[in-house]
C-alpha cells in the first residue's frame, strides 16, 4: 500500500513533527522539554487532554520561520515517502507569531517556500487550512480568522478549528467562521470526536462548515447519518488517531465502514502521525485487514478526498490525473 497514491485532508503541521526533529530543536535552543518524550523516544501522553498539553510543549520549540521551513520539509518528505501526493495541513497563527499578522506572513512565507521546494523535488502538493484553537477561546479565534482572511489565496484555502472539543460551543466561534467564509475560505471543524452527534449538528448549523474533522460519532444518531449522506458532508476520518486515543477499542470496531455503507462520504487521514504511531501506509494496511478493502476501495476514497479538497480546480485536476494514472 505504501506506493499507492494518496490524498490526505486532515493533518496538523506541528502534530506531524518527527519527535527526533523536536528533540533536536530543543537541544539547539537549550530548552528542557524532556516531559514530552517517552523512554523509547516517541511522544508520551496519557489521554487526549494530556496530548494537547504535550502538543503545545513540543510546539514551543518552534520559534522562528526558519524552524517552520525545516518542519514543513521534514513533514512533506515523510508524507511523500508514504505515497501522499496531496496533503492539507492545519496551521495556526497562534503558534506562528502569536496571531500578529506581519509575523504570521513571515512564517507563512517560510512554509510556502518549503512547500514549493518539496513539490519540485517530490511532487507532493501542500495546501493550508488555518485553524483556531478552541480552548484558546472565541476572542483569539477572531484574531486567527483575521490572519487567515488577510492571507487567503492559492495556498491558504481553508479555515477550521482544532483543540479541546469540550471547551465552549461551536456557535461561540461563528464570528471567526463568518469572517473566514467572507474571505472566500472553505470551512471545516473538529466535531463528533470528543463531542457527541449534537456537536456535528452544531458545526453544520452554527458554523456552516462543508467538511467535518472526525465526525465519527455521527454513528450514534441514525437521522444524522442520513443527513450527512444526503448533504454530502465529507468526514475527515482518522481511524488510527481514534484508536490510539481510546475512542474505539480496535480497528474492527471503528465506524468508518458502517458510515461508508450508509452512504456518508468518508476519507482517510493520520491527524498527528508520530503522536499516534501511524502513517498513511499503516492506516491503509490496518483498514484493509479490518474491512477487506483493496487498492480499488482506496482509490475510491482518494477520489472522494480529491473532490473534497479545498484547492482550486486546476490543482484538483492534476491530483485526479495522478490518481487515474495508476489505472492499467
Ligand atoms: N485534535 C484536535 N486538536 C488538535 C489536534 C488533534 O488531533 N492536534 C492538534 N490540535
Ligand atoms: Zn485533528
TrEMBL record:
Its EC number is 3.5.4.4. It comes from the Bacteria. Residues 5-324 form the Adenosine deaminase domain. This is Adenosine deaminase. Signal peptide: none annotated. One of its GO terms (molecular function) is metal ion binding. NCBIfam families: aden_deam, PRK09358.1-3. Keywords: Hydrolase, Metal-binding, Zinc. InterPro entries: A_deaminase_dom, Ado/ade_deaminase, Metal_Hydrolase. It comes from Actibacterium atlanticum. Its cofactor is Zn(2+). Belongs to the metallo-dependent hydrolases superfamily. Adenosine and AMP deaminases family.
